[in-house]
Design brief:
The structure is a homodimer of 110-residue chains. The first copy, chain A, is built from 5 helices and 2 strands. The first copy, chain A, is mainly alpha-helical and 110 residues long. A two-stranded antiparallel ribbon of chain A has the order 1-2. The two termini of chain A are 21 Å apart. Chain A binds a DNA duplex (21 and 21 nucleotides) through helix 3.
DNA sequence: CGTGTAAGGAATTCTGACACG
DNA sequence: CGTGTAAGGAATTCTGACACG
């Protein structure tokens, strides 16, 4: 599942509050919470229950904003987003396999 | 001045509120604001005046926390931090010059 | 010097609901 | 379906100050 390098640490760390996400995306709080209910974004919660988003979430939300403008519905968007996730995962896997073959070929280790 | 690649965009974007910085660093709000007064960190302000920090600021603050534990004072810390900044800048410069030479040697372009 | 704390106010965020469509 | 809004409460953040040392 967690196929992220340490380089991506800041991309996925959930530290941004909803107000800042509004500024970053141009979306309203209402919209952002609604997309959560429709399972398009998954913020974490602080101890007191405040939503925390990652930069990756912000990117997803900007993508959502564009697709919604084009008339896409949340149900369809959910499928798309899952597809994107899967594709990214597949790429990681492919990468790893290729690296494995190369390492074998050149007789190298990690 | 701004010698940051696009890759670093998330590292320097000021989006984290002080409460989250407390959780991330283990410092109190009081301490974080004090280090700002002593010119060790430079948060931005939201429209309503709330402090916003970057991941880079958080790293700086963790560094500060360590040095303070070792008995270092803020005045001394300020000098150190400026030095670190300068060094980083020098490295970037050196890197760029070397790249330039290599490109000239191999007759390549960006 | 560096940090805790109580103080009072302003801004933030949360939830569930009414509304329109 | 997607989003605006008013409602009331709880948590956040801000500043300037008193305190200890």
């Amino acid at each position: 599942m967690a196929a992220h390098s340490q380089r991506d640490a800041y991309l996925f760390k959930k530290v941004i509050s909803i107000g800042t996400v509004c500024e970053l995306t141009g979306l309203s709080e209402r919209q952002i919470r609604y997309y959560e209910k429709r399972k398009l974004v998954f913020p974490e919660r602080s101890e007191k229950g405040n939503r925390k988003y990652s930069f990756s979430d912000v990117e997803t939300l900007m993508d959502i904003a564009n697709k919604m403008e084009d008339g896409m519905q949340t149900a369809e968007l959910r499928k798309e987003l899952q597809n994107a996730q899967t594709k990214r995962y597949d790429n990681k896997l492919r990468e790893r396999m290729i690296r494995g073959q190369l390492n074998a070929y050149f007789n190298k280790r990690d």
